[in-house]
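Many introductory courses stop at the sequence. We go one step further.
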Amino acid sequence: MYEMTRRQVVRTILCSAGGLVVVRYLAGCETENGAGTGGNANGNRNDNAPDPTLLRIDDLDHVKGDREAANVIIEYGDFESSECGAFFRDNEPTVISELVDAGQAAFVFRHFPRVEVNPNARLAAIAAECAVDFFEYHDLLFNHQDALTRGDLIGYAEQVGLSTTTFGNCLESEAKVPRVDRDVDSGTRLGATETPTFFVNGHKLTGNRTLADFQRLLG
């Protein structure tokens, strides 16, 4: 009985002392959430490290610039978000001209409609996917953030020369929903919770950022 008690005491001391990982492992320690040392309940060793596969440009991404550029800027955006609109007007033109057009970086836009605060954002994202020229329509949406009803979206399609019937049918169908949900899922997995959220070569930024903010993170 005395021997068992002594082992229990030693094990308790080892677990509370924060010693070497090997010692903690051998002592059978667990964190409060039940995960092993150095991890969490999901088995991840670092919650802050983004999944690198989600930060690569793929064939479905909407990209400005050279897809093979040395640097990648990914924006998770919401067409109804005031902060996204501010970035689009105040800083994106400079980022595109100074970094993207100069060949230093590729710029990727991914959907992250925050429907809990922006009720028209999800339909606007679907509408952008229904457009033939994504970024042409993208620009129209950000220039008319206060008018994103279904009727407005069809009107913008007419402005860019699309068939309103075909476009309206696309909006009503489920065809583009998985494409939008794909972006939302990747943003969620990367830890995005607000818009805009940017990933610059894997580094996370939020809010309306300036050219200098991006330049500091370029390779």
